[in-house]
Amino acid sequence: MNVKKVLVSQPRPTSEKSPYFDIAEKYGIELVFRPFIKVEGLSAKEFRQFKINISDFTAIIFTARTAIDHFFRLCEEMRVSIPDTMKYFCTTESIALYLQKYIVYRKRKIFHGTTGKLDGLLAALQKHNKERYLYVVSDVNKADTNILDANNINYTKAVMYRTVSNDFGPDETFDYDMLLFFSPQGINSLMKNFPAFKQGDVRIGTFGPSAAAAVKEAGLRLDFEAPSPKAPSMTAALDLFLAEETGDNAEN
User: String of b and e for 208-218 (b: at least 16 CB within 10 Å)?
Assistant: First the structure.
């Protein structure tokens, strides 16, 4: 097998029980976790240019923990006091629970969906249709807000953080046999950091249709992608690909 060193463009898993480590041991490969992109918050000065007054809103919509972090960071920087009456609407329970980092959870009005998408929050949003919602997003947010518009939800999008290229330093080696991507921004960062990149025998795997499309748009070869019927996750797709490479597909 020609794959010996794999770059996973995500942060290293916090648990040593991650399937990635099982795969590394199973096939004797080296995994390097190194994001191609990073998130940085807008400064208070940058946010003020949008002329959005946070105090005008009575409810907040969160779709990510990162959004929560940057909302409260900006509020602190701009000395905005959040009233106890503020309502919080989160697309998942885990995001809602993350609010405990900043507020006394049991004393606030917090609602969460189960689908991870805005449609899972619709019933709660409609029930509280008199609220003025601030929807905290990143600069690359592509969430479909048609459902909010169609149901006359009074909301304003507020960009509070952005995704930027996590540039490689001059001393960082780039000697990988395989690259794993999870977003179009990761592909863009690859081409920005290495404009003369020639794929050759380097395998590329992606998770999600947008990342797969970005590989092809960059003129690169896509060797495998997830999710698929046989591989619902990136680790499953990686395991399947390596098994086929080695001919060890008896378990699949």
Answer: beebbebbeeb
Tokens of 146: 């048609």
Mean pLDDT of 50-74: 96
Exposed, middle or buried: residue 43 (CB in 10 Å: 0-12, 13-18, 19+)? exposed
**DSSP β-ladder status, 5-8 and 178-181:** parallel
| pTM for the predicted model, two decimal places | 0.70
CA of 139: how far to CAs of 47, 124, 161, 162, in Å? 12, 26, 7, 5
End-to-end CA distance of the chain: 18
Measure the CA–CA gap between 57 and 67, rounded to whole angstroms: 16
pLDDT digits (tens, 9 = 90+) for 142-158: 667 889 999 999 999 99
**What domains are there in the chain, each with its CATH number?**
5-36+168-246 (3.40.50.10090), 40-163 (3.40.50.10090)
Q: CA nearest 241: which of 97, 252, 62? A: 252
- Closest residue by Cα to residue 174 from 155, 198, 147, 148: 198
